[in-house]
Amino acid sequence: QAANEMRAAAARTAAYEAMRVASLMLPKPKVEKEVLNEDDSSFPEV
According to the lineage, what is the superkingdom (predicted)? Predict the structure, then answer.
């Protein structure tokens, strides 16, 4: 059971790191900046 839990934890961390690396390689920061800009422009309206 412990070995299976360790394997599951390793798979989870590997998937998390893979998603993190993929998010760094993809142009997500630009999308996040656009969303932040939209939020900033919406604050004065409220």
Answer: Eukaryota
